Amino acid sequence: MTQPPPSPPSPLSPSSPLRPSPPGSPLSRIRVGSAPDSWGVWFPEDPRQVPWQRFLDEVARAGYEWIELGPYGYLPTDPAVLTEETARRGLRVSAGTVFTGLHHGAAVWERTWAQVADNAALARAMGAEHLVVIPAFWRDDKTGAVLEDRTLTPEQWRALTSLTERLGREVRERFGLRIVVHPHADTHIDTEENVTRFLDATDPDLVALCLDTGHYAYCGGDSVRLIETYGERIGYLHLKQVDPEVLAGVVAAGTPFGPAVARGVMCEPPSGVPALEPVLAAAGKLDVDLFAIVEQDMYPCPPDKPFPIAERTRRFLRSCGA
Fold first, then answer.
1. Of 143, 138, 146, 147, which Cα lies nearest the Cα of 186?
2. Residue ranges of region Disordered (predicted)?
3. Residue 99 and residue 134 in contact, taking contact as beta carbons nearer than 8 Å
4. In angstroms, rounded to a whole number, what is the distance separating the alpha carbons of residues 33 and 218?
5. Do 297 and 268 meet the contact criterion of CB atoms below 8 Å apart?
6. Residue range 89-112: average pLDDT?
7. Which domains are assigned to the chain?
């Protein structure tokens, strides 16, 4: 197994206005970061996305220490290169991200594992401890074309849960990472009913949850209630808000997720829902080490738009104690 590189020193000094929460505070074990998604990055390559160097420069300048890898291939995939680029900016990697379609059963395992292994190897080499797992979409996020039924059969649920457990076991054994499954709009793990069904059917030792507050609100869920009810399953957070007025129109029109994002359904905190202060407070009560990664879905977006939002969001989260 590839050994992770030494962790770079924190760029935050005790006198910095962006210093971490003081030891003993309710949020002292929550580590805040951001991700390429907050810079409008959805794909490894796209001319409408900012270059990776600009993302790294700006995410550090906005006051974040932790980042996710984003779509595999956007950031350099050579660990030596990426280690140098992140370390000189005072950045560290919290997780990689993969998309899966495990409800399709054993036939997709080898194809799934091939992309998981690449992502996991890079994440581990960068010193990360998590792999964010996002289920496949049931409709195309650009065209809205229905790809399959939005409701899984009992057989598909069994395939989803059993193969996710297998994924958790093999990722841990081969790479030393913990998988955190990300409920997501337009997937089969979305609403409170489906999220709790998934959690109840999977082994807590193998499968944790990446609670994305924006996606969960988008699908009608209550993040605070989920944390309070399934706290032991929360392994990772994505901090995000939705604009309730835009969301109401999206739901009424049956708009796919991609066009909904283009309409601004995911908005800058603290202007949307859910309120992040009670989410962070509930997470702080778990008294566990927890990443809280800002992800404001913006695709496509003007290249100069993300940085001011990222900087303001970091200040807002600091005002919440995180």
1. 138
2. 1-30
3. yes
4. 22
5. no
6. 98
7. 30-319 (3.20.20.150)
